[in-house]
């Protein structure tokens, strides 16, 4: 009788290694081997370690997968496939898989009935992770040939149509899948009831036992007013908070942004003031409590910071500054003030748990999930996820940008405007602005928000009609001259 070996995913935590007296230099060994903090790795239930598979996970950044969240997502997708092979394909190893295994996996993951079925986007991400493993394994000489079938397709790229080699099990995204966003008044109701613990009519709920309602509500406000992704907003450092005077600019670091695309986003002055109030009251109370209790937990591997400005910091003992744009979420969680700080050992991470540890994305996802459950208990048909807030920001921001463009038409014109120029003013400039604010690679990506903007067509058609009328007047004046 053989023992089933079910793979599971783990990640390195250098702070835990400090409590292993039998391995005094294990942290140094990992550093010299290039194993970074938070590095995912796969172990079998019996502790078996696949050297090649884990080397693939370790080398993902060299293959274009650099963001911590993306590395973990790829590792999770590969691990799920390994588990499927072990449990449903008679213990087959990933190194022996073939196209039939992938098709069987597709039937289980995508074509199954019930809530276990994943979306097309989730399935395609899983295939992308496996394709990356195939490419890496072929390059490393670990596979004699690709185990899956690939076909040539024509896709649109920023440079125009292009023939690409894609996995035959990739699925086309359904065009009629609705974009998830909420009306702003529904968002406020969800925030107040779900996160802050109010009753739907606005009164306080004596039965509410939740904690940090104001902090959680503020975090959601930061997302919906800036368009930041969950990981981007969760990874903010205190020095990155905009000053009270100024435009409320936040520079989203490339090291925490999707595909490394850093950008500038803006918070309204009222929200900037609320963040500063949170720093001075709720967060400061956590810092003082931890200092009184003897310090912050789990900081044996902290990277001490001597000084920090708006866009860079100076680590203790370093000769050169370290731009925030190049500090990953994993490294950000290790940053702490040295003795020159207000409180020695205080994390630079903005959002802290009660014990002073940096709050990670999973904690925010859990807070959103509890908020949804609470709203459901009151019969409110509102469900919000972190990415819902990004879509909500995009839809409302696009409406504002279009209105701003329409107002610009009422300004005196210096010479005639061609119809194509008007279209650029009405659609091109707002869409380009929205693309930059959201950090998308292509402008075409943000056009999806036009489909859910109720007044977009009315605004554009009304403005075009207004311009046509003005053009007729201008043409007549030119003819009369």
Helix share bin:
40-55%
- Order of adjacent strands in the largest pleated sheet: 9-8-7-10
Number of helices: 15
Mean pLDDT: 83
Low-confidence stretches: 413-419
Query: What is the gyration radius calculated from CA atoms?
Result: 26 Å
How many strands? 10
Largest sheet: 4 strands, mixed
Report on this model:
- The protein has 481 residues and is of the alpha+beta class.
- The chain is built from 15 helices and 10 strands.
- The protein has helices at 14-17, 26-32, 51-58, 68-88, 99-109, 120-139, 184-195, 213-226, 230-234, 269-292, 329-332, 361-377, 386-408, 419-438, 456-480, and strands spanning 8-11, 40-43, 150-157, 160-167, 249-252, 263-266, 303-308, 312-315, 322-323, 335-337.
- The strands form 4 sheets. The chain has a 4-stranded mixed sheet with strand order 9-8-7-10, with no helix packed on it. Strands 1-2 form a two-stranded antiparallel sheet. Strands 3-4 form a two-stranded antiparallel ribbon.
- α13 (386-408) runs parallel beside α15 and α14 (419-438) packs antiparallel against α15 (456-480).
- It is globular, with a radius of gyration of 26 Å.
In short:
With 481 residues, this protein is of the alpha+beta class. It contains 15 helices and ten strands.
Topology:
Layout: E1 8-11, H1 14-17, H2 26-32, E2 40-43, H3 51-58, H4 68-88, H5 99-109, H6 120-139, E3 150-157, E4 160-167, H7 184-195, H8 213-226, H9 230-234, E5 249-252, E6 263-266, H10 269-292, E7 303-308, E8 312-315, E9 322-323, H11 329-332, E10 335-337, H12 361-377, H13 386-408, H14 419-438, H15 456-480
Parallel strand pairs: 7-10
Antiparallel strand pairs: 1-2, 3-4, 5-6, 7-8, 8-9
Helix pairs in contact: 4-6, 7-12, 8-10, 8-13, 13-14, 13-15, 14-15
